[in-house]
From TrEMBL:
KW Hydrolase (keyword) present: yes
Signal sequence range: none
Start and end residues of each stretch annotated as Disordered: 1-44
UniProt KW Hydrolase keyword: yes
MF terms (GO), sorted A to Z: phosphatase activity
Protein name: Stage II sporulation protein E
Keywords, in A-Z order: Hydrolase
Annotated PANTHER family: STAGE II SPORULATION PROTEIN E, STAGE II SPORULATION PROTEIN E-RELATED
Length: 438
């Protein structure tokens, strides 16, 4: 056991053995009155040790200079730096969060800055316009350093220069990763857009060219138009010949839009063609079709469908409204009105339901306008729908001498004028049927 005289100093005595803390030539330490303190309380400068810019810089070299710099408060969404504008400040984030946006629209994900990070260093270095926009995310407290003062007070420190270079390098890597991710996303989007364009072409090619169907020999004229809300849609029309000079007209709308609705509608129309070629009345064939749709409908979609089978020789027709909007009808030049018919349920809801069949006859001069709800639901910027009343008014205004295709063009033009540039939210399909005068 050592003699007490050999013990090392303890507690306050140990400080006397460190010449870097207190030299013999220094006068004795005396307490400093609180009213003689200068700058901020040292506890308020605790952020200094967290700043990446000042990593491994002795605290006492920074405290006096940073204590005199202003702290600024920013609220959510407030802009500190705007892209393209000159900025002369370096901001040290001491509380809250900031976000860097490379895009003027601020629709990019942005780079999140947390306490201990800085922003504005590129402007301080080159004094050029800012390359990004910096906004407050929530609320934030920063230390604002003027560029000139930064260079005068800290610019000669190699440690600070190295730390700033490290910060810039890290941020550039993050930017590069974001650019690469955005490029990959764009390539993926371009690929999807290309596939959607091909799908839209395929869907258009599936639609029959009604104007080329050989029905004029039977005194009929047909035209069709389809306008999806997206590139592809869930509204379709079809027309095809059956045995014994019969013609089937069909128009359907899936409860949805886009690719899933389009694929489901194609499936329904394919099954419709198959069923309409089988023997039996329309009610029976619609019942079988509905059961098939229910059995293949895993997504829960439903389909409204109008089907009419016309006897081209006798001009009589049977029709079914399966949850579909009734067609507008004009008899021999008289005013248009909606076909008074009993509605049946939509396809795909539940199996083994009964379908009601209506009977009609086409006389010379009769005109039929078959459409999906997207036409009357077409809205303008004030969210006002086109409506049934306006549709009947526009149909009555059509010249009787119009060809079927011309009539569709004018109704489509009326819808466009009503929308006045508002986005189309629902698919639209329309079909015109005219019985020619003899």
């Amino acid at each position: 056991m050592r003699d007490r005289t050999e013990w090392e100093p303890r507690g306050c005595d140990r400080r006397l053995s460190n010449p870097f803390l207190l030299s013999p030539s220094q006068p004795p330490m005396r307490p400093i009155a609180s009213n003689n303190r200068r700058g901020r309380d040292r506890r308020s400068n605790g952020y200094i040790s967290e700043q990446k810019l000042f990593h491994q810089i002795p605290y006492h070299l920074l405290e006096s200079e940073l204590s005199s710099l202003p702290q600024k408060q920013f609220s959510d969404g407030e802009v500190l730096i705007r892209r393209g504008q000159r900025n002369r400040y370096l901001y040290l984030l001491i509380d809250g969060c900031l976000k860097i946006h490379l895009d003027d629209s601020q629709e990019d994900e942005g780079i999140l800055l947390e306490p201990g990070e800085c922003v504005g260093e590129m402007s301080v270095i080159d004094r050029g316009p800012a390359s990004a926009t910096v906004i407050c995310d929530g609320s934030a407290t920063v230390i604002q350093i003027d560029a000139s003062r930064f260079w005068n007070s800290f610019g000669k420190s190699r440690h600070i220069a190295r730390n700033m270079l490290r910060i810039l390098t890290t941020r550039m890597r993050t930017h590069n990763e974001m650019i690469l991710a955005a490029r990959e996303q764009k390539l993926l989007c371009d690929h999807l857009q290309s596939e959607l364009a091909h799908a839209a072409d395929l869907q258009r090619n599936m639609l029959p060219d009604l104007s080329q169907m050989a029905v004029q020999d039977f005194g009929l004229e047909l035209a069709g138009l389809m306008k999806p809300a997206a590139k592809v849609g869930g509204d379709l029309y079809d027309a095809f010949f059956m045995e014994d000079n019969h013609l089937c007209l069909a128009m359907g709308s899936v409860s949805g839009k886009g690719m899933p609705a389009a694929l489901f509608m194609v499936q329904v129309m394919s099954m419709l063609r198959g069923q309409m070629q089988r023997p039996g009345d329309i009610a029976k064939r619609m019942g079988i079709l509905n059961n098939l749709v229910c059995q293949s409908n895993k997504s829960g979609m439903q389909v409204s469908l109008f089907v009419a089978v016309i006897d081209l020789q006798e001009r009589g027709f049977d029709y079914c409204l399966a949850g579909h909007q009734p067609p507008a009808v004009s008899r021999n030049g008289h005013a248009f009105h909606f076909l008074d018919a009993e509605a049946s349920p939509r396809l795909g809801g539940c199996e083994d339901v009964d379908f009601t069949i209506g009977l009609g006859r086409l006389e010379p001069g009769d005109r039929f306008f078959i459409f999906t709800e997207g036409a009357i639901n077409r809205q303008n910027g004030n969210q006002e729908p086109f409506g049934e009343t306006e549709l009947l008014y526009q149909l009555d205004a059509l010249p009787r001498a119009n060809a079927a295709g011309k009539s569709l063009e004018e109704i489509d033009h009326a819808l466009t004028l009503h929308a006045a540039g508002a986005q189309q939210c629902e698919d639209i399909a329309m079909m015109a049927v005219q019985a020619l005068d003899y």
